[in-house]
Structure formats: structure tokens, C-alpha cells
Specification:
The protein is an alpha/beta fold. It is built from 7 helices and 11 strands.
Length: about 260
């Protein structure tokens, strides 16, 4: 395992990109910005002379064209090593997925970080972002598969798009009361309470199939709702995917 003194890792999503700054293997800074403006955000951040990465690792699960080589080299004239991560990049866990080329690399990064946190244990990683993903690895550290369903914003958007009169409303941070007393309150109750009920039911289903000795990890922009609304969460980490990207990076020192 070869630790780069300074590394920048990027998780480029559909609308937001999250960046992590690692120094001697430890996550020191995290920031997020609109994916569309990734280059301007990095240029601003690079003005600090302390931010001189030896390597930049990224995964792109959104619409961003290869995050890239050209752009990063413009920002850092000393041209750090560039390491794009895909579903087929070697990782420090087993992968029993039937179609590995179609597996989102962010899902695999979550498993990598989960196995690092809980070695030799069964883990379920729930990433509550644009979509909600459920990913399971057995105690040998082998990824077996999972499930995908719509995230909160997608549910709000669907109610507005596929009905004639339901408004598109913004999400609020708190968990709404079950009994909505206005149309907006009813939408929030249905979306958020339904989200919590789904995740609770999925955890129960995974537990029924694989046993109660399973660690449940949550991450993603809406993970705070799961922390506040469920009692079956073992561990929550908003930066789980960034940590997984870093583990994949150091597993591939020569690439």
C-alpha cells in the first residue's frame, strides 16, 4: 500500500460533485459544488499554495464528460497523476456482480469503504442520494449485489411531472408529521415517510435473508433523515464514497 502525501479525490454526480483532500492518508477537507462548474470550483480551490495534489482520482456517475485530464492539467501545471475510476478498475474486495461493467463505481466505492471499516463482517451500504442504492457484501468481503430505487428529489419531481395539479415543492430538513394538513404537507409526508418506511423495510428484508449480524452503513445527501428516523443504522458517514475512492486509489499505486 503506497500512500500519496497529498491526494484529491472527486465523486462527480448528476448535479453535485463532492471533493475530498487527503494528506498522508487522512481526509482533511471536504467540499461540494455544482458538477457543471467543477473546473471553476477547482481553480478557486487551487489558489491556496498548500493545495498541490500528487494524484487526482475521480469517478463520474453523472453526465460530465471525462473529468479531466485536460482540465486538471490546466489547473495544476506540474501535472499530478490522474486516476479515473470505472466499474472495471481493480478494487480490494471481491465482486460477484453478474454484469460488473454496468455497476456504478460509486456503489463499489461504498462497499470498499464499508469493508475497510468493518472487515470480516457482513455489511449493507445505503446511499441516499439522487437514487437510493442498497449494496451488500458478505463476511469474506465479496460484493454480492443490491437494489436501486428513486431518491427523495426524484419522488417529488415524479409527483409533479405525472399529475395535472400537484405542485413541485422543495424538500425540508425535518421529518414531517405523518398527518399532512395541506397539499404540500401531504406530499412531504408521503415522500419522506414513504422513504423511511422503504429503507426500514429493505433493512428488514436484508436482515431476514442474511442474518442479524450485519452492519448497516448509510451515506449520501439524505442520510441524515435515516440517522434521525431509524434505529437500525450502525454507522453513518457522509464521506463514505470519498474514502472508498481513496482506498481504490492506493490499491492501484502503479496505474
Amino acid at each position: 500500500m503506497n500512500l500519496p502525501p497529498q491526494a484529491l479525490v472527486l465523486d462527480a454526480g448528476n448535479t453535485r460533485t463532492k471533493a475530498g483532500w487527503f494528506v498522508d492518508g487522512q481526509l482533511q477537507e471536504v467540499w461540494a459544488f455544482e458538477t457543471e462548474g467543477w473546473k471553476a470550483a477547482l481553480q478557486h480551490w487551487s489558489q491556496d499554495p498548500a493545495h498541490r495534489p500528487e494524484v487526482i482520482a475521480w469517478m463520474n456517475v453523472g453526465h460530465l464528460p471525462d473529468l479531466a485530464a485536460a482540465g486538471a492539467a490546466d489547473i495544476w501545471p506540474d501535472a499530478p497523476r490522474l486516476f479515473p475510476i470505472t466499474a472495471l478498475t481493480p478494487v480490494p474486495v471481491g465482486n460477484a456482480y453478474r454484469t460488473p461493467a454496468t455497476l456504478g463505481p460509486d456503489r463499489l466505492a461504498g462497499i470498499v469503504a464499508g469493508v475497510k471499516k468493518f472487515p470480516r463482517e457482513k455489511i449493507l451500504v445505503i446511499d441516499a442520494g439522487s437514487a437510493i442504492t442498497y449494496d451488500y457484501a458478505d463476511a469474506s468481503g465479496t460484493y454480492l449485489g443490491g437494489a436501486i430505487s428513486p431518491g427523495l428529489q426524484m419522488r417529488y419531481q415524479a409527483l409533479h411531472t405525472f399529475t395535472a395539479k400537484l405542485p413541485l415543492i422543495g424538500h425540508q430538513q425535518e421529518i414531517p408529521d405523518l398527518l399532512g394538513q395541506s397539499t404540500e404537507d401531504c406530499i412531504r409526508s408521503g415522500v419522506v415517510q414513504g422513504f423511511l418506511s422503504e429503507v426500514k423495510g429493505m433493512i428488514a428484508a436484508f436482515t431476514h435473508r442474511f442474518g442479524t449480524d450485519m452492519q448497516v452503513l448509510v451515506t449520501g445527501g439524505d442520510a441524515y433523515l435515516l440517522q434521525n428516523g431509524l434505529k437500525t443504522i450502525t454507522f453513518a458517514d457522509q464521506n463514505l464514497i470519498l474514502k472508498g475512492i481513496f482506498e481504490i486509489l492506493i490499491f492501484n499505486p502503479q496505474i
